Backbone:
């Protein structure tokens, strides 16, 4: 099976609080058309700040030109703030017409009845969904379409590693731990590896912890059920605990969110980071002088199998509370069209959600091509996609993981506790 086919199969089976409140208060999902029959719809997402300035707005301008009776109001902010806004809007019934989605949120939103059934919208709008690379479904209905897909490689600060005497990015766990320890030994505010574990945005468990399991062909599941006490998960947690005890991990992990991780790396304070390709633009923009490279996640020493590559999607959905679902779906259809999806995946340094779209490598950052090579050499891996209450599962694991790192319990006890709480959710 090709990587692309496997990627589709894996997925298919499967911003601050004040700002959030003000954004919710301004929601127009129930706004009527004006006297000229024009409507305004909102699109809440974290994508615009992570793209080159003005490029996403240019796509929206093109949509409005093609659909003169529809105005799109962009509600943009960091990932964590968007999440806060959407969860608050879901609870209040005031979610924006069109929403950017993380696959980990879909189960919760669908169960709350806050997302429209896209399968029904496909039928209502005579939309051919055969060109969609993947769809996130629950009980046979689609609630999220991955617009673009990102791999999460390892980022290395080349100057810091060189200063610490590390001549090349690490390829296995031993090399990674040694490199992180050497960078931390440089002193000052420099650390080897940055690990965000905030329980408010616990996706660090997915992207920065379980990725070590998947990189060596391991799994946190067995026949679709939790299997957190197996040797693969145990080995990964013991490994990270060792790095924590060595002082190789940046301080403040327990309260750090994804954007904090990116800021630490961008400012040159950490040597190594596991992160989305989506942030390459942001890093280049905020620190043009930073010399960094990307590579595949290190695997267990001696592992020669296919490496799992963490991935995430910029997903899109339509609010069930929107009174303009037809217009909202037109925007979804526009973003998933062959031409626009090609443009969006190119500017995002990601892989397209339309099977007929292709990113343009000609003017892309060289790291984009390198990431595609990493992707082709491995297999996409994210076992949280499609799981029930996946966000809560991350948070439950995070709680036990923090206790383990703090020394309040053993690795074995922490994994057993997480296994018990996960099993209750299944």
Residues:
């Amino acid at each position: 099976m090709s990587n692309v086919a496997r990627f589709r199969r894996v997925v298919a089976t499967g911003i601050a609080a004040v700002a959030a409140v003000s954004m919710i208060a301004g929601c127009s999902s129930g706004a009527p058309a004006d006297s000229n029959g024009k409507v305004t719809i909102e699109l809440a997402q974290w994508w615009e700040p992570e793209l080159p300035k003005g490029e996403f707005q240019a796509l929206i301008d093109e949509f409005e030109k093609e659909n003169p009776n529809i105005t799109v109001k962009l509600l943009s902010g960091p990932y964590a703030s968007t999440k806060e806004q959407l969860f608050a809007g879901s609870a209040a019934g005031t979610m924006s017409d069109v929403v950017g989605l993380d696959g980990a949120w879909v189960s919760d939103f669908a169960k709350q009845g806050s997302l429209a059934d896209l399968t029904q919208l496909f039928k209502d709008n005579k939309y051919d969904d055969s060109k969609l690379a993947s769809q996130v479904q629950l009980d046979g209905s689609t609630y999220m379409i991955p617009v673009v897909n990102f791999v999460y490689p390892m980022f290395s600060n080349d100057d810091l590693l060189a200063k610490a005497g590390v001549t090349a990015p690490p390829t296995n766990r031993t090399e990674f731990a040694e490199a992180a320890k050497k960078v931390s030994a440089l002193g000052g505010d420099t650390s080897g590896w940055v690990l965000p574990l905030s329980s408010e945005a616990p996706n660090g468990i997915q992207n920065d912890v379980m990725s070590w399991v998947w990189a060596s062909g391991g799994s946190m599941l067995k026949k679709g059920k939790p299997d957190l006490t197996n040797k693969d998960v145990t080995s990964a947690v013991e490994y990270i605990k060792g790095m924590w005890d060595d002082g190789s991990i940046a301080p403040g992990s327990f309260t750090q969110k994804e954007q904090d991780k990116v800021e630490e790396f961008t400012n040159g304070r950490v040597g190594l980071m596991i992160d989305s390709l989506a942030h390459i633009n942001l890093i280049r923009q905020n620190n043009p002088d930073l010399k960094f490279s990307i590579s595949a996640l290190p695997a267990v020493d001696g592992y020669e199998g296919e490496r799992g590559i963490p991935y995430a999607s910029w997903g899109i959905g339509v609010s069930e509370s929107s009174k303009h679902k037809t217009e909202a779906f037109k925007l979804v259809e526009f973003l998933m069209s062959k031409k626009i999806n090609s443009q969006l995946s190119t500017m995002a340094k990601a892989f397209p959600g339309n099977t007929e779209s292709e990113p343009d490598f000609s003017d892309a950052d060289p790291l984009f091509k390198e990431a595609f090579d990493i992707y082709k050499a491995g297999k996409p891996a994210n076992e949280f996609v499609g799981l029930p209450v996946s966000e809560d599962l991350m948070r439950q694991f995070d709680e036990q993981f923090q206790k383990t790192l703090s020394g309040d319990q053993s690795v074995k006890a922490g994994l057993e506790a997480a296994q018990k709480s996960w099993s209750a959710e299944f």
In short: Confidence is low (pLDDT under 50) at residues 1-28. DSSP finds 17 helices and 14 strands in the chain.
